[in-house]
Amino acid sequence: MGETRILPSADVDERARIGGGTTVWHLAQVREDAVLGADCVIGRGAYVGPGVRLGDGVKLQNHALVYEPAVLEDGVFIGPAAVLTNDPYPRSLDVDGALKRPGDWEALGVTVREGASVGARAVVVAGRTVGRFALVGAGAVVTRDVPDFALVVGVPARRIGWVGRAGEPLDKADGRDAGAAQDGPRWRCPRTGEEYIESGGRLSPA
């Protein structure tokens, strides 16, 4: 674990906690009470809202916006200009015409589970969960929870396949192990050879 590095033009609140080996690049903003784990990379112009929690090894690419109270687990990747929102019914003014303040609404954060990736310019709407090692395609709009290992694209985002821990689309495996007749389709990672079993619309390691 290396030293924490905060570039001079970054705006990091003194109440934020930054883990060892983490780099915060130019013009990024990390708000009060945010917690960043070890060995994270916060790209140029990225935003981390108050109380947001990042695990170890998280990468926020340039101009990614992560609004409170989002939780990003270890190894999460957020692509350039992606947005994790926090208000399902946004308004500037309340019904009386007054400017809304933080106390006038309840922030609903996004959760991104271990190893998942959100592509460039994708949007994840308030309160949704992106499952472990899932992959959200560039420009997608996530309006419902994404299962573990799912590959989702489009507006609204829909699953078009599965990915493994390496992030590459899985191929159908040839045959099944003995005694596995009750299992669903089997999938194999073309890079690592790891196999997965699909059952009930979910995927899990074999």
Protein model, in words:
The structure is a single chain. This protein has strands spanning 5-6, 11-12, 17-18, 23-24, 29-30, 35-36, 41-42, 47-48, 53-54, 59-60, 65-66, 71-72, 77-78, 83-84, 111-112, 117-118, 123-124, 129-130, 135-136, 141-142, 150-153, 158-162, 171-172, 186-188, 195-199, 202-205. The protein has 206 residues and is an all-beta fold. The chain folds into two domains: 1-89 and 102-163, Hexapeptide repeat proteins (UDP N-Acetylglucosamine Acyltransferase, domain 1, 3 Solenoid); 164-206, no CATH class. The model has no long low-confidence stretch (mean pLDDT 94).
CATH architecture of the largest domain: 3 Solenoid
Element string (H = helix, E = strand): EEEEEEEEEEEEEEEEEEEEEEEEEE
Number of domains: 2
The N- and C-terminal alpha carbons lie at a distance of 33 Å
**What is the CATH topology classification name of the largest domain?**
UDP N-Acetylglucosamine Acyltransferase, domain 1
Strand order of the largest sheet: 1-4-7-10-13-16-19-21-22
Q: CATH class of the largest domain, anyone?
A: Mainly Beta
Number of DSSP strand runs: 26
The general outline is: globular
Number of helices: 0
CATH superfamily of the largest domain: Hexapeptide repeat proteins
For the residues shown, what is the average pLDDT?
Answer: 94
Rg, Å, rounded? 19 Å
Quaternary organisation of the protein chains: single chain
Strand proportion: 25-35%
SS-based class: mainly beta
Helix content: under 10%
